[in-house]
Amino acid sequence: MSAINNLQLKQIKDITSLNDVDYLINMKLNKEYTLHVYEKKKQIYFIDLSDSTKVDDEYLYNYTILNGDEFFDALKDIIQ
């Protein structure tokens, strides 16, 4: 979790194909989210699944990861 807390993100408008996703993470907090993580492009997309009938900009958050080394190392450790 500290790797997620330390992420520095910059919001972007770019959309990347779901076929290129490296990691898919489902999370439930106060809402349900899916995180699409693209290691090569250093991007992460948060999709708010709390209302699955709506898929528009209001529910899709796209970011470039500015400092992802610790985050990607943590993901690789979890997968192994």
What would your notes on this structure say?
With 80 residues, the protein is α+β, with helices and mostly antiparallel strands. The chain has a five-stranded antiparallel sheet, with no helix packed on it. It is globular, with a radius of gyration of 12 Å. The chain is 19% helix and 35% strand.
List keywords for this structure.
alpha+beta; 80 residues; 2 helices
Question: How would the blueprint of this fold be written?
Answer:
Blueprint: H1 2-5, E1 9-11, E2 23-28, E3 32-38, E4 43-48, E5 60-65, H2 69-79
Antiparallel strand pairs: 1-5, 2-3, 3-4, 4-5
Distance between the termini: 17 Å
Percent of residues in helices comes to 10-25%
Class derived from helix and strand content: alpha+beta
Low-confidence stretches: none
Based on CA inertia axes, which overall geometry fits?
Answer: globular
Rounded to the nearest angstrom, the radius of gyration is: 12 Å
- Please describe the biggest sheet, giving its number of strands, its sense, and whether it closes into a barrel: 5 strands, antiparallel
How many β strands by DSSP?
A: 5
